[in-house]
Known about the structure:
The protein has 102 residues and is of the alpha+beta class.
Amino acid sequence: MVDLIPQEFSRFDCSEYFMNFQAGRYDTNALLWFILPVIQIRSLSEEDALIVGRPGVDGIEFCYRFGHSGVWAFYPIERQWRAVSSTLRDLEDRGNDGSLSV
């Protein structure tokens, strides 16, 4: 299998994103990209994280973190992290069924 992860993001455990979520997921109710399309993802270098989504509140961003598994929420006001999901698919499912809280 060809490695789909661009070199600049290869240090993150983000293969699920590049295999299944490059098109992103748009939330038509919230009018935002809940999971970002590949052209919008970016590194948060000071936190060593890869931003792949957002819930649309308080500047919170969903990220992969270097050296950590799963998907994390970064709270920029407090500069704190919280694990929110073991996989991006689970994050999407919980966002869709309303069981995700940030």
